[in-house]
Amino acid sequence: MAWMGRQRFPMGSDLFGPEERPAHEAKVAGFWIDPSPVTNAEFADFVADTGYLTLAEREPSAREHPGACWHRPAGPGSSLEGLAQHTVVHVAHADAAAYACWAGKALPIEREWECAARAGLFELGLVWHWTNSPYRPHSVPAGNRATMPRPIAAGTRVVKGGSHRPSARRAQPVHTSAGDLGFRCVVHG
């Protein structure tokens, strides 16, 4: 894990999507963060130890690949052969949170994730990552209004990382599992 000390940093952006606005100063307490997303091998250890079934295994969806789940990422007939060190995908928010709890960690909040990304800690643009932050507008100074591109749905979390910009963010329903959605963990303190 990589240490991110207590700090203030620029968060959000006024240059790109309305969901990233406004640019503002944010602060974080010190925390440790995984420099890489959780891998298929790491998630397999969790499943072997606990017998956990992901949401995609319990309630299959035809959204991307019918029958896809973390160990069959392209659907029935696919496998993790040769993919042990790849990012685990097809995990819903609860699945990621269950893994984090088992590992003695937590999912990062949005500002922790963005702080580490802005520090150059990890590569961006590969997959979106779950955070533990509900999706809502960034805080704004009194008298200003945040601009959101659409109404905020209940039961969503911010996902980060699927863009080459640290400020990029989107709302993801917590029950979603997809082939471009993984996670990494933090330890506070």
The residue ranges in which pLDDT falls below 50 over 5 or more consecutive positions are none
Number of helices: 4
CATH superfamily: paralog of FGE (formylglycine-generating enzyme)
Number of strands: 9
Secondary structural class:
alpha+beta
Oligomer kind: single chain
User: Which overall shape is indicated by the principal axes computed on the Cα atoms?
Assistant: globular
- The CATH class turns out to be Alpha Beta
Q: What CATH architecture would you give?
A: Alpha-Beta Complex
Mean pLDDT: 88
Radius of gyration: 17 Å
Topology record:
Layout: E1 2-4, E2 7-11, E3 24-28, E4 31-33, H1 40-50, H2 55-58, H3 93-102, H4 110-118, E5 128-134, E6 156-160, E7 170-173, E8 181-182, E9 186-188
Parallel strand pairs: 5-8
Antiparallel strand pairs: 1-4, 2-3, 4-9, 5-6, 6-7
How would you sum up this structure, described in words?
It is a single chain. By secondary structure, this protein is α+β, with helices and mostly antiparallel strands. It has one domain: paralog of FGE (formylglycine-generating enzyme). It is 18% helix and 20% strand. It has four helices and nine strands. The strands form three sheets. The chain has a four-stranded mixed beta sheet. Strands 1-4-9 form a three-stranded antiparallel beta sheet, with helices on one face. The mean pLDDT is 88.
